[in-house]
Amino acid sequence: MSNIPRRAAFIAIEGLDRSGKTTQVATLQTRLQAEGIPVKLLKFPVDRTTAIGQMIDSYLRSQSELDDRAIHLLFSANRWELAASIEQLLAAGTTVVCDRYAFSGVAFSTAKGLSLDWCRSPDVSLPAPDLTLFLDITPEQARSRGGYGEERYEKEEMQRKVRDVFHQISSEFTAATWVTIDAGREREDVAEDVWNFVRQLTGGLSSPLERLWEGKK
Q1: The architecture CATH gives domain 10-201
Q2: Is the Cβ–Cβ distance between 166 and 19 less than 8 Å?
Q3: Where are the domains positioned within the chain?
Q4: Could you tell me which residues are beta bridge partners of residue 211?
């Protein structure tokens, strides 16, 4: 019998704005709790009331202007603030589910014209999700949903570029660690797909937590 301690799974849910991420994350959290599985939900940027969070919030609401590189580094710093906490939660047996993670930071900044390699570099060695679920939706479908356009990046042309970068990023990962889900369907159908992939990890993992983009040139 193996003596390797098991840990919980780290799951990231990504997608374009208005792709249904928040709804699906909340649904997943409820499902995990119903199964008796400890779960911690994180949403990046985390806590917009902190010093970094306030700067990010002001920028996203178009109330302030920052250099593209500066805002990218702020988003990365926000993730690093919680990196140790994520590892501790996983080691303690608590599944961590993130609404957006480093992939969003890279996708949005690259879509603005920054180098993909440069955008990845601040997040190298962050805890890597065991599973990333990308909720794929066309910018046209996203635009038809309520609240579209309230934040800085919710413009159809920008979302199209972001989607292209997400697809580029996905090619760097295996089919076991990155799954693209059609989010243009009924939310119940999307939720069922999400659960079918997540439940495979609910028994815990004996493998060590990977580090994001280590060794990537």
Answers
A1: 3-Layer(aba) Sandwich (3.40)
A2: no
A3: 10-201
A4: 127
